[in-house]
Write a structure and sequence with these properties.
This protein is α/β, with parallel strands linked by helices. The chain has eleven helices and twelve strands.
Amino acid sequence: MQIYPAIDLKNGQCVRLKQGRFDDVTSYGDDPVQRAKIWEEAGATYIHVVDLDGARTGNSYNLEAIKKIVAAVNVPVQTGGGIRSMRDIEQRIDAGVSRVIIGTAAVNNPELVKEAVRVYGDKIAVGIDASKGMVATDGWEKISDVPAIELCKKMAEIGVKTVVYTDISKDGMMSGPNIESTKELVEQSGIDIIASGGVSTMSDLEGVESINAQGVIIGKALYQGALDLKEIIERFEK
């Protein structure tokens, strides 16, 4: 199971949100490049970077920070947040990003996903963020009428190989991931599912591993020291 330590960018700084709320921000005051190096030194083999400003507005204010992170580490980086056009994808691929995660646009513009997969193949993933089983968009500020499982199946048909699934109610709460919903996606979609949101204990990780998720994204639990990155990589990746 792949472990993805997270770096969430807001105004160029490392932050964490609670349940995706932009008015509930914890800033870790970190230089994100330094943070990426810390994760790499601890054994990270893949890093997950989110442009929170981009997710909310559709404009990337953090592209320079992403470029610096990619240049500073020797492990692959995946990134999402504000990906609304082929140009947005191209900019990130050109910056050296290994995988680009399309979120809101997968709901609003599935043709973009289709075209992106045609051009970039496995370098494209889709982020499905859900509240009570329904897909959320625009930095989680809008809830659509699209069920997460239906979107996941649609993306699989388009040729998407990887989905990052986040239960918003769990994100940043350290209350455990939504194993049941994630398991449903793993079993019904037939594609790689990366679990995200709420992971804070070894037993949470064991739960995610038990449902055959491809990987798991961990943020707040690492920043607060509830989990040790080196230890969990040795336990779940090796």
